Amino acid sequence: MTLENVIIIGNGVSGVTLARHIRKLSNHRITVISNETRFFYARTALMYVYMGELTFEDTKPYEDWFWKKNRIDIIEAEVVAIDKTQQTVSLSNGESLAYDKLILATGSRPRTLDWIEEDLKGIQAFYHKQDLDLLEEHAPNNTVCKRAVVVGGGLIGIELVEMLHSRGIHVTFLVREPSFRGGLIPQSESNMISDHIRDWGIDLRVNANLQTIKAHENKRIKSIIIEETQEEIPCDLVCITIGVTPNIELAQSSDIETNMGILVNEYLETNVPQVYAVGNCAEPRNKAYKNKFAANWYTARMMGETLAHTICGNKTAYNPDHLFDAAKFLSIEFQSYGTVNSIAAPGNAQFHWKHELENKSITVEYSKDSHHFLGIHAYGIRLRHEIINRWLAEKQTVHYVLTNLHQANFEIEFSQTYEKEIVSMFHANFENIKG
Amino acid sequence: MKGKEQTNRSFFDVDIASLSLKLKLALILANSGIFIFILALFNVQLPSSPIFLSAALVLISAGVIIYSNETYGKKKAGVNNRGVWLTSITSRGVLAWLLGITITLLYIVLYFYPNLLGLGENGQPNTGLVALFDPLSLWLSRKPANQWFVYSTLYTLGIFIFGYKFMLKYKGNRYQQIRTISVMFFQLGFAFLIPELMARLNSENFSLPYNDFKNLWPLNYYNFEQYRVDQLLSSGNIGLALLILAVLSTFVISPILTYKYGKRWYCSWVCGCGGLAETAGDSFRHLSSKTLFSWKVERWTIHLTLVFVVIMTTAVIASYLGSDTSKYWLTKDAFLIMIGAGLTLVFSLIMIFKRKELGKDARYGAIGFFAIIMSLLGIHLFSSHNTLFFIEAETLRRSYGFMIGSIFSGVIGVGFYPIMGNRVWCRYGCPMAAILGMQQRFFSKFRITTNGGQCISCGSCSSQCEMGIDVRSYAQKGENIVRSSCVGCGICAAVCPRGVLKLENGSLDETISQSPFPSENHLGSNE
Q: Inter-chain contact A42–B456, Cβ cutoff 8 Å?
């Protein structure tokens, strides 16, 4: 294999996973360019730093010597231009580097509301290390920040709610939907989480949009107004978490084809030869792949690993078969495998079980005709990835899956189990479904 | 970096004015209890010591219990370690150093200057703090107290009251509840009550040594010393049974349990050192170093201690065995040949079956240590030299007792909790942990399973690992965790925000990894 110059722009999970796997498979020269932090850290862990469970040092999955030892060069700079014909990139520090393969792993950034005045103090998003530092400044404790408003019912929104709550700050949580994640997950699940949020003493406002932000003379914010009710809520901090938008400016200015994100085929190739895109900045040309490009940690990591094979001579399509996801809503753990729609898709049906008192539930989606198991959502119950994945691959029936659910139990030893209850409810309600 | 992060965090800093009324009450009660001990220490004549001793113990317990209820009682089940890096005492702040230095000094006094605690020397009655404990000791064993009785009482109390705190902190996690009840049971029953009550049985012609059945050799390095063995052998069938039990525990019972459940059956369910670490030391678990460098250091220090204890014990036993087979079946030479054969067997099995799983340094280390021990045994057998290993057995025994038994396991082991984490001794020193760990790594069903590809690399597991295992480095690759040092405390699985980890006893052949992702090098480098 001829040695090539591989340049990766971005040191998030997709870029770094790619770099590590290229090193495992080859001796290519690897350069990672980023202007966020010198060393890779887990973005997912920033919340725990604010909550005092980790130091920032703890968020780095690899010790600082790791990169040099594995001959992964790191350059702290911004890439300002790509020359496709010469195959070079120009950096903000004036340097220019030649590449044989260029990978855009530029990730995404938080969306913002364009009407917000830029010079107001006390408004922020939560995404980068820099946002953590800013939050530490805006909300170090509940004396400086008595009340905060979090706008947007997404995963980062609920994390911020938990973080601010941990410092005793009163939080108002504005969610556009009629319930938290309403319309994205089955309604009973959405209700359960919404109740749980209120249980924590969080001021959850549903069907609520942010209309305007009022500020003092000195530009410090003082309150917000909810569009639907015209209620004014005094606050010291507003966090805007209304989703993310792919970073495509560099690609756009270099005439690499983009839509919302950088367009790639199933091999993660852009329209420009030798230029690839992975992670949150990538968008599939084939709309059928939309789910497989969902902007999360897992897809970013899998794209990085897949592309490493292609770069190292073994052309591999990015096509993970059974998607999975996991999250945590305050203290409720959530796992998802396969597909569970908010309302069963045409031709499908759902089985739902919820514990009488505790925040534990499962929802299984299956095909009405064949009874094939299509996906499962589990809250407060840990399932074994390997087993569920196998059942999805084997196209087991919903009957088989539920009666064998104990095999997929991944709970801590001595935990109470609920399989019996689940199976008896299944039998009671679904006598017509046979294995 | 940490200095910068610790600014502006008054909410978590210890600020007495911001404590709730109940927390203030807890502080007052516990300190009043400690104050009684201080009065006793300075020989203030307390009128009736049973009352004052009870008062001190009750006040301290009440303080800790009220503190626990107030801090964790109302919280819902879940992860309750918020703010550990924002609080002085749990983040190597001023309070942590003060606490560490105080404990260290107390241990130095306990081990080397017990007279300062009031131990009566040369038949003199006890004074001070030790005298305060006389009534309890007399009631239990009909003997006056000594410094070890004081220590053992407070140690047991510590495991109970901080165990209570631990159980509240990890409520909703039954593994943690059951495990904590287990360490409480073994501490109270096996380490505290049984030995004291057994001392009652002793008379002029029947005398059993102090016996904590769960304290196995080599953690209990003095288990086979001459005075103990003599005492046991002269105490008839009971003594003989106890001696046989001690040998079986180390060489038969322990390997079977470790095969089935991993070393956790001992280290975090039974052991007293582990018991204190898991309860009183719980607040300091995140302080252990997670670097690769620490892991390398740990592997050398713990195995050096193991080699030391094997040499020392062999020399000590050989020193009191005779050479005449007609007097006793076990002669010195027979014993040494037995030890040599046993070590050769273990060494060969590992080298034949597990060679590939050993790191380069481990291979060289094992070969080196083995060669040294065997040549020393050989030199002795085929020469007329009187001292085994060229050093007097007594010198070896005394140096081990001083350096390892007192300084390492006691002074450093507990004194350094607030600075280096709660398992310093277990991780860097304990020879028992070394043996169990070797077996756990090579021949046990126990592992921590990683749930497919669900890890988000947040590092909560690594941070909370008291043994300094970088759990994340395995989990993020989808690999199972099979590490000799893992004591199976289960906190990584408890704090993981995605439910990725599970401690389990699976089947032997799938302990290493069954992941959907290619496995990588354990040391975290992709060579």
A: yes
pLDDT digits (tens, 9 = 90+) for B276-291: 999 999 999 999 999 9
- CA-wise closest residue to A40 among A79, A66, A71: A66
Q: Does residue B526 have a pLDDT over 50? A: no
- Which residues, numbered 74 to 133 in chain A, qualify as contacts with chain B under a Cβ-Cβ cut-off of 8 Å? none
Q: Which two tokens stand for residue A424?
A: 């008896």
Question: Of A309, A335, A319, whose CA–CA distance to A286 is shortest?
Answer: A319
What is the reported pLDDT for A3? 92
Q: What angle do CA B402, B404, B406 make, to 5 degrees?
A: 55
The DSSP element (H or E) to which B209 belongs, if any, is none
In B, minimum Cα distance to A321 occurs at B516
Q: What are the angstrom distances between the C-alpha of A129 and each of A40, A69, A119, B473?
A: 11, 25, 21, 22
Q: Report CB contact under 8 Å: A45, B490.
A: no
Buried/exposed B97-132: b ≥16 CB within 10 Å, e otherwise? eebbeebbebbbebbeebeebbbbeeeeebbbbbbb
Q: What tokens does A87 get? A: 């195959």
Q: Are A20 and B457 an interchain contact pair (Cβ–Cβ within 8 Å)?
A: no
Triad A226, A230, A234: Cα angle to 5° = 60
Q: How far, in whole angstroms, is CA A336 from its chain's centroid?
A: 13
CA distance B232 to B243: 7
For chain A, give percent helix, strand, coil, nearest 5.
Answer: 30, 30, 45
Range 215-274 of A in CB contact (< 8 A) with B: none
Q: Is A141 on the interface with B (CB under 8 A)?
A: yes
Q: For chains A and B, what is the number of CB pairs under 8 angstroms?
A: 165
Q: How far is CA B431 from CA A8, B155, B298, B308, B392, in A?
A: 47, 22, 12, 9, 22
CB atoms within 10 A of CB A343: 11
Residues B76, B168 contacting (CB under 8 angstroms)? no
B275 near B458, Cβ under 8 Å?
no
* A235 backbone φψ class: left, alpha, beta (φ>0; ψ -120 to 50): beta
Interface residue of A44, A48, A53 to substitute, partner B, most B CBs within 10 Å:
A53
Alpha helices by DSSP H, listed for B449-506, are 460-464, 471-475, 491-495
- Six-digit token string for B506: 């699976």
Report long-range pairs for B117-121 (Cβ below 8 Å, ≥24 apart): B117/B41, B117/B147, B117/B150, B118/B40, B118/B41, B118/B43, B119/B146, B119/B147, B120/B144
Kindly report the nearest CA distance between residue A316 and chain B, in angstroms.
15
Residue B182 has pLDDT above 80, yes or no: yes
Touching B: A residues 405-424, CB under 8 Å:
410-416
For A107, A131, A303, the CA distances from A43, given in Å and listed in that order, are: 12, 11, 17
Contact yes or no for B524 and A415 at CB 8 A: no
Structure tokens at A265: 């085929």
Q: Which residue has the tokens 């992860």?
A: B79
User: Is the pLDDT higher at A284 or at B197?
Assistant: A284
pLDDT at B383 exceeding the cut of 70: no
ipTM for this prediction: 0.95
Q: For the residues A403-425, what does the mean pLDDT come to?
A: 94
- B456 with A44: Cβ contact below 8 A: yes
Residues in B closer than 8 angstroms to A63, CB to CB, are: 291-292, 524
Kindly state the tokens that stand for A163.
């973080």
pLDDT at B121 over 90: no
Q: Looking only at Cα atoms, what is the longest distance across chain A?
A: 71
Q: Do B79 and A141 touch (CB under 8 A)?
A: no
Show the tokens assigned to B385.
Answer: 């030299």
pLDDT computed for residue B5 by the predictor? 41
Q: B5: which chain A residues are within 8 Å (Cβ-Cβ)?
A: 49, 55-56, 136
